[in-house]
Automatic annotation (TrEMBL):
This is Gluconolactonase. Residues 25-271 form the SMP-30/Gluconolactonase/LRE-like region domain. InterPro entries: 6-blade_b-propeller_TolB-like, SGL, SMP-30/CGR1_Lactonase. The lineage of its organism: Bacteria, Bacillati, Actinomycetota, Actinomycetes, Mycobacteriales. It comes from the Bacteria.
Length: 303
């Protein structure tokens, strides 16, 4: 028996960071803090509870997907120059040149062994969509691909047991979707399947996603300014609506961009939100961002 999703009240949310923030992506909870990429300011930043955001590194090629190696060092996709970088003690170090294998590499998830799963955009905006696979960069430097026919793979998450990977197909038509894979012991992706489907990419395009300890996914829908908690099979259990009266696509407005669970009990859902428009995003990711937080029932995955 299906039930209507629970709409979480607006007054349960609180703003935890705002001011001098741009288009915020790649939310990751790591070692007691929320990390994220500010694509407008070309910086990796960190937000510790009760403190203002702290800039950790400048990424001239514009940071996108974030993850962490087994040693805790940040790894980041530099989207403008198609590189995977490591933030080391002496600055940025190149881990891989992705240009030969990925057109516009974007979001990323990194597993506990240090494997990086990267979603390439695959095609230029305004041209026909091209299906692609994910790029897998192994800790020893080997690069492989996994999956096929993914349309604009974007947000990527890995379950707590490391056995399931979920990726958002942002602009798949006629319906956007979350696609899941089984992850083998050697990091390969098998059993490609539909996790959940939504509406038209003109309204329900998906951006960043997070995952909780039950394997449900928090997905951001920027065009309609909404976050949804989705179980495998498509059941939506919870909805968060950001400024529901504000116009979004195509005129611009308040975009829901990404979500991640963290906090002392891993039950704080951090919401990355940016006021922008498609035209402003094309013009250097021009946006004004903020981070909100809300307490939820199901905890995230301890790092």
């Amino acid at each position: 028996m299906s039930h209507s999703p629970r709409v979480l009240p607006a007054d349960a949310r609180r703003i935890v960071a705002q001011g001098d923030l741009g288009y915020l992506e790649a939310a990751r909870w790591h070692r007691g803090a929320l990390w994220f990429s500010d694509m407008t300011r070309r910086k990796i930043s960190r937000l510790s509870p009760g403190e203002p955001p702290e800039d950790i590194a400048d990424v001239p090629g514009r940071p996108s997907g974030l993850g962490f190696g087994p040693d805790g060092a940040p790894m980041v996709v530099s989207i403008d120059d198609d590189r995977l970088l490591r933030v080391g003690s002496s600055g940025l170090e190149e881990l891989a040149d992705l240009a030969p294998v990925a057109f516009n590499p974007n979001d990323m998830a990194v597993d506990r062994e240090g494997r990086a799963y990267i979603g390439p955009q695959g095609y230029a905006f305004g041209t026909d969509p091209i299906g692609v696979g994910l790029v897998i960069r192994h800790p020893d430097g080997r690069i492989e691909t996994g999956g096929k026919d993914l349309i604009f793979p974007n947000g990527i998450v890995i379950s707590g047991d490391g056995r399931t990977l979920v990726v958002a197909e942002s602009f798949r038509a006629p319906r956007t979707r979350l696609t899941a894979f089984t992850v083998t012991d050697d990091g390969a992706l098998t059993d490609q399947r539909v996790f959940a489907e939504f509406g038209s990419p003109d309204t329900e395009a998906i951006d960043g996603i997070g995952i909780d300890s039950e394997g449900a996914v928090w997905a951001a829908f920027p065009w309609i300014g909404e976050f949804r908690r989705v179980r495998e099979g498509g059941e939506v259990t919870d909805v968060i609506r950001i400024d529901p009266d504000t116009a979004t696509y195509p005129d611009g407005g308040t975009f829901a961009v990404d979500a991640a669970l963290g906090g002392p009990e891993m039950k704080t859902l951090y919401l990355l939100i940016s006021d922008t428009s498609p035209e402003r995003l094309v013009n250097g990711f021009d946006a004004t961002g903020r981070i909100e937080a809300i307490e939820v029932e199901v905890a995230g995955i301890q790092d």
